[in-house]
Write a structure and sequence with these properties.
Helix content: 25-40%
Strand content: 5-15%
Order of helices and strands: EEHHH
Mean pLDDT: 78
Number of helices: 3
Strand order of the largest sheet: 1-2
Number of domains: 1
Distance between the termini: 48 Å
Radius of gyration: 15 Å
Largest sheet: 2 strands, antiparallel
Number of strands: 2
């Protein structure tokens, strides 16, 4: 991939994570120091704007597509339905009404 600067924000509290002490993407996850939410920081969880996508080479696009496919497969296997995935994304705080 080209050397694009990626801004990472917590999926739970929206805190900017790049400047959190010790922030790194090794291991594919980062726990937000503001709220404690475990965030996926893999390539498959990067959102590109249209301008960036249009400026990518075919090789870069191929690499991005493969990262998205791996991300989709990983979560499709782990979560059996939309509720389970939503519960995970919210940090396990969703409850069903009795």
């Amino acid at each position: 991939m080209s050397k694009l600067e990626i801004d990472w924000y917590c999926d739970s509290c929206n805190a900017y994570m790049n400047n959190q002490p010790g922030f790194n993407r090794r291991g594919g996850y980062w726990t937000c120091t503001e709220c404690g939410f475990r965030n996926d920081v893999t390539d498959g969880n990067i959102y590109y704007d249209e301008e960036t996508i249009n400026s990518m080479t075919p090789g870069e696009l191929n690499k991005v597509n493969k990262a998205y496919e791996a991300f989709d497969k990983r979560y499709a296997k782990k979560y059996s339905d939309d509720y389970m995935l939503a519960d995970y994304c919210r940090g396990g705080d969703l409850t069903e009404d009795d």
